[in-house]
Amino acid sequence: MLSVGVVAMESTEAAAATPKCSRAVKMKPRAAYSYYMLIPKSANTVSCNMSPGARNKGVTALQTALAYCYNVNTGVTGHKFGPGDIDGIYGNATKNAVYYLQLQLFPQQSSEQDGIYGPNTAINMKFPWHNPSNDRIMDTCTRRNGS
After folding, report:
1. Helix, strand or coil for residue 56?
2. How far apart are CA 61 and CA 17, in angstroms?
3. For the residues 96-113, what does the mean pLDDT come to?
4. pTM for this structure?
5. Contacts of 79 by beta carbon, 8 Å cutoff, 6+ apart
6. Which residue pairs, CB below 8 angstroms and at least 24 apart, start in 5-8?
C-alpha cells in the first residue's frame, strides 16, 4: 500500500515539474521543407503538458492534430473529434479524445491513459502539416521527429 502512495506522489511531482503548454510553435517535419506543423509549447520547450481547463493556442494545436490525424471518439456516442471541435478549450471532448488516442498509442500502459497531454503523448502523436503559401491544413501527418 505504501509503494502505491509513493508512485502516485512521484507521478504528481513529475507532472508538476513539467511546464504547461501555453502556445504553439511552427516546427518543420524536415529542415528543408517549407511546410510546418503547429506543436504545443511552453515558453521554452515542446516537452510540456496540458489538461482540462487550459485555454490557449497550444490546445488549438493539439485539437487540430486530433481532428486531422486521428479518428478518435470524444466520449459522446458515435461522435468523432473533428474540425468543428477545435475551439482552443481543453474540455471534456478534448480530454476524451486524448484518452482514446492514448489507448491507441499505449495499449499496454494504463498509466499513460489519463486524457492529459504530456511529453510521452506528444512524442508519439502525429501533427498535420500546414501549407504556408495558403495556410491550409494538409492530409499528411508526422511525428515531431519527422517519422
Report:
1. coil
2. 22
3. 93
4. 0.85
5. 73, 93
6. none
